[in-house]
Amino acid sequence: MDLFAGCGGLTLGIAQAAHKRAVALDVRLAIDFETAPTKVFKANFPKANVREGTVESYFDGELGASLTNQEAETLAMIGEVGILIGGPPCQGHSNLNNHTRRDDPKNRLYLRMARAVEVLRPSAVVIENVLAVVNDKQQVVSRAIVHLKKLGYDVATSRIDLLKLGVAQTRKRHILLAIREDALPFGFSAADLLQIEDHKAASRDLRWAIGDLFGVRPKSFFDEAAVPNADNQRRMNYLFENDEHNLPNEERPECHRGNHNYTSMYGRLWWDRPSQTITSGFATMGRGRFVHPEAPRCLTAHEAARIQGFPDYFKFVDERVKPRYELTRTEVQVIIGNAVPPPLAEALTSRLFDADVLQASGGPSQSAEDDFAASAVSLAC
Ligand SMILES: C[S@@+](CC[C@H](N)C(=O)[O-])C[C@H]1O[C@@H](n2cnc3c(N)ncnc32)[C@H](O)[C@@H]1O
After folding, report:
1. For residue 106, which atom of ligand 1 is closest to its CA?
2. Residue 298 catalytic?
3. How many H helices and E strands in the chain?
4. Architecture field, domain 206-336
5. pLDDT single digits (tens) 279-302
6. For a pocket test of ligand 1, which of 4, 131, 316, 331 has the largest count of ligand atoms closer than 8 A to its C-beta?
7. Which helix (H) or strand (E) holds 10?
8. Which of 201, 238, 247, 334 is buried deepest, with most CB atoms within 10 A?
9. What is the pTM (predicted TM-score) of this model?
């Protein structure tokens, strides 16, 4: 079950781990309140039970209270859940959000995950967020931990570096893992199971992620860079004409000059380094270091999706059946920027399968993701 599911980056990671073990996966419920990511989720997981709505409307009870009528209905609809995963919105915690950070009402959505655990009692729970979630004024992480422990879960948290999971991007995430005590294998703790970083993994660079996409003929806006305004085009040309990766002060807009910490803004990427964190601003040079290493343009949606760790078989825009679902360029950018890189959930779930926290039996013999993964793999081959 996937809450705040977006387009399904976390679910895709689980599907990949399950598929490698020939395990059928059944997405009992995926919820997101935005239409555009929900469309992408449905297109990629056609048999999943995907709902467009708020998480609070399915889990509307107070922590510690008995189940509400709605929650009893949700439980009856879903039944037993092996893994509950979710990435509540994180704008309120983000250090990039100077106005509302640390005391945003949205941050309380983190605790809806704990309430969903209380209702469903899954074997494993994963809550993904930005590192700064621990600075939240309402202390949502500590409160969730206390509550989950009361419910009989072993809980651990970690700062996971996605570079150490093979993602070609500097991105670190805060992960909370909770395992129901009776599902915890002998000799293991949640903290052991959260050790997923591979310190020997070779750091991947941008060329590894997108080198083959340079010069592809676009079939849609997915492979076309956004058209910049004249000032930004001139700035990009400057970077190439002067063989620079950082734009000097005098070339920046006035409000960005002087002493600033925004060196990466208006910057150009390097082939032989990982990308900076992909955000929904990847198509605009003023939103980060998003200029392509070899051409005076910003990243395309396809390149950003690759850097996020999405395989090409995952459909953001279906170019064969036009338009199978209609999304704007901006919607696709937001969806990709908000997504959680699938290798994160793949690494975590693999560990849970290998330690027998998640069982390979008991599910339906055939499921949406089984079909999906099989077709996806054949497409990838
Ligand atoms: C960080 S994104 C999730 C990314 C997703 N977990 C993935 O793996 O790709 C957060 C998502 O939460 C959704 N959202 C925000 N508030 C919500 C709410 N109250 N109920 C349901 N969805 C919500 C947003 O539309 C957004 O798609």
Report:
1. 16
2. no
3. 13, 7
4. Alpha-Beta Complex (3.90)
5. 999 999 999 999 999 999 999 999
6. 4
7. helix 9-20
8. 247
9. 0.91
